[in-house]
Amino acid sequence: MAILKVIEVLSSSEVSWEDATRKAVTQAAKSLKNIRSVYVQDQSAAVKDGQVSEFRVNLKITFEIE
What we know:
Dodecin subunit-like, alpha+beta
């Protein structure tokens, strides 16, 4: 039987929401083993001078505890 844990992570990117998600998973994988899934809970964007300047995601990362 596997025990799974879920953590909430915030990430941002100047490129896209997908890039922000990839950055979060890449960074989390540096300290977490056995990442199983990621759930994007919320998306938002910052606006500067009438243009989107930053894409933001609030996501949940699920990983197995050894």
